[in-house]
Design a protein that fits this description.
- By secondary structure, this protein is an alpha/beta fold.
- It has helices at residues 15-27, 54-57, 67-75, 92-99, 102-110, 138-150, 174-188, and strands at 2-7, 34-39, 78-84, 122-128, 154-155, 159-161.
- It is 37% helix and 16% strand.
- α1 (15-27) links the parallel β1 (2-7) and β2.
- It is globular, with a radius of gyration of 16 Å.
- The two termini are 19 Å apart.
- The structure holds flavin mononucleotide (FMN).
- Flavin mononucleotide binds next to α1.
């Protein structure tokens, strides 16, 4: 089982990344599981131009660092999207990545191709926010759900953490990090592993 983890924060070793590392450690407890991290902020990604070029071919006309990511996402068994909350939504890095999957929306809804559609293939969202706002995750959840649907993945379990702001704040939340390890085990299909 291969998991692709998309890091959407510009902050290295920040709060959302700490959460992702704990989930990854849970996944890696499963024999044979593999994990690959992609840090979006290190890549050159153009925003979707809304040109409609993907409508017929299901392929994006832009060539940039996104190009190899389409194949990586197609090949993974589980996709984990990791982001801080910025202005009640996902980071710009994540949103740019997501919008480019209009090419996969076109593959599913315009070309009618159900790619690797099965209940095992899932998308997970990990997000951190500074505040305790009631609706703080609503926008991120809707966007992530729409992405996973376009990718023909099940909308899986998510981990949404309020009240962490300064770098290092997440590392002090040991109970939540333990939950993240358990989530990783569940993703890898071995919840009973110690
Ligand atoms: C540009 C920007 C916008 C932010 N907007 C929000 C917000 O709307 N609500 C909130 O609770 N936190 C907001 N935050 C705080 C981050 O979500 C929070 O610090 C998060 O834990 C950072 O995760 P990271 O360390 O992985 O980047 C914002 C931070 C930045 C830099």
């Amino acid at each position: 089982m291969h998991t692709l983890i998309i890091l959407g924060s510009p902050r290295k070793n920040g709060n959302s990344e700490s959460l992702a590392q704990s989930v990854a450690s849970g996944i890696m407890q499963h024999p044979g599981a593999t994990v690959e991290f992609i840090r979006l902020n290190d890549l050159r990604l153009s925003p979707c131009q809304g040109c409609g070029g993907c409508n017929k071919s299901s392929t994006c006309v832009i060539t940039d660092d996104m190009t190899p990511l389409y194949q990586k996402v197609d090949d993974c068994d589980h996709l984990i999207l990791v982001s801080p909350i910025y202005f009640y939504g996902l980071s710009a890095q994540c949103k740019t990545f997501i919008d480019r999957f209009q090419a996969r929306w076109a593959r599913k809804y315009l070309s009618g191709i159900r790619f690797r559609h099965d209940e095992q293939r899932q998308g997970t969202l990990l997000v951190t926010a500074a505040t305790e706002g009631k609706k703080i995750f609503d926008g991120a959840l809707l966007t992530a759900h729409t992405l996973f649907d376009a990718l023909d993945m099940k909308n899986g379990e998510h981990l949404l953490v309020r009240g962490v702001d300064q770098r290092g704040a997440m590392q002090k939340q040991t109970r939540i990090l333990e939950q993240a390890v358990v989530l990783g085990r569940q993703i890898a299909g071995s919840p009973g592993l110690e």
